[in-house]
Specification:
Elements (H helix, E strand, L loop, with lengths): L2 E2 L10 E6 L2 H18 L4 E5 L8 H5 L9 E5 L7 H12 L5 E7 L6 H9 L3 E5 L5 H14 L6 H11 L3 H14 L6 H7 L4 H13 L3 H13 L4 H19 L6 H8 L3 H10 L5 H21 L3 H15 L6
């Protein structure tokens, strides 16, 4: 679960500030607030907003009293990217937040947009820390906490085996813990994890793709080498890379809207829409084209068109990661 940096347990505090870059923890922070609001009022109106949806004046309209005095939850994602005029409006709102409205600000932390971060803290916002897990020990701790939160016992060896099998994606780790606790009675040990997950190709190949499209070349190469060393077929990795790049291209050319609407339009689950939105930063149409060519070349390389499939994959991963950062270069 996301770790609170303050002692406040009031999920319906006027402002909740979720700080960090771990998507799963950010999403959980939002879900907790929404669940509490809907427990208080089943008709709560939830607005999930990206920076481009918050033009000057939008906040005043969103926070104006409704005819039926319904409760609202306003979720503002990537708050560090909000335009200056909108930030000014939010700072003014923090001085006198509206009743029956809960504002949830999702901020990556760091120097960008720090003025809003400081203003929310000064206003007494309830704060939730959502740090990116970068070390194996942190992922191991996360898995142990997941089992504990579900009231289940897992051996240290089982937790380690799950991290080794699934990789660094917390969402997939949480899903694996939930599946094991639902399917298995008693203490979960290493043998159980082995039956379910050890060497699972889908998990490791998609980890390679996720890190590549996020522009994290070193981590993508590390995941690639681990996947190949555990026997994952190169063709599965090229398939995952192709799906990752195509998802970026499809979403970047789609009309704006709620994840549920885009999910229906693009044939993706809503959680996938949220993830791809996070991964899209830095991508350009030219970058997508470059990445698709790199995937095509790798696909040919692993299917007999080249002498070294592993080198073909490494070349593609580096090309995709660079393409993801073209706008930032």
């Amino acid at each position: 679960m996301a770790t609170r940096k303050t002692s406040s347990d009031d999920l319906l505090a006027p402002v909740t500030l979720a700080v960090g870059q771990e998507d799963l923890l950010l999403d959980r922070a939002v879900r907790e607030v929404v669940a509490a609001a809907r427990a208080a009022d089943a008709d709560t109106d939830v607005r999930d907003l990206a920076p481009e949806q918050l033009q000057p004046g939008a906040l005043a309209e969103l926070t104006s009293p409704s005819l039926f005095a319904e409760r609202k939850v306003l979720v503002m994602r990537n708050a560090q990217d909000l335009p200056a005029d909108t930030v000014k409006e939010i700072k003014a709102y923090l001085d006198a937040p509206a009743e029956e409205i809960t504002l949830v600000l999702l901020h990556a932390g760091g120097a960008k947009g720090k003025g809003l971060l400081d203003a929310a803290r000064k206003a007494g916002a309830r704060e939730v820390a959502c740090p990116k897990t970068t070390k194996p020990a942190e992922r191991l701790t996360f898995v142990r906490q997941e089992f504990r939160s579900l009231g289940r016992s897992a051996t240290p060896e089982a937790c380690q085996a799950l991290v080794d099998s699934i990789g660094s994606d917390l969402r997939e780790l949480a899903s694996a813990v939930a599946q094991l606790t639902a399917d298995v009675d008693g203490t979960i040990d290493e043998a159980v994890v082995g039956r379910y997950y050890t060497g699972r190709a889908e998990a490791s190949s998609f980890t390679v793709a996720d890190r590549a499209v996020e522009g994290r070349a070193a981590e993508a190469l590390e995941a690639l080498r681990w996947s190949l060393s555990t026997g994952v077929a190169p063709v599965l990795i090229t398939s995952a890379l192709a799906q990752g790049v195509r998802a970026i291209g499809k979403l970047s050319s789609a009309r704006g809207g709620r994840p549920a609407d885009l999910a229906r339009e693009l044939g993706m689950p809503p959680w996938k829409i949220d993830r791809v939105r996070q991964q899209m930063r830095g991508w350009t149409p030219d970058g997508v084209a470059v990445a698709l060519r790199a995937v095509a070349e790798a696909d040919a390389g692993v299917k007999g068109g080249g002498d070294d499939p592993e080198y073909a994959l490494e070349k593609a991963v580096v090309a995709i990661a660079r393409a993801a950062r073209m706008r930032r270069s």
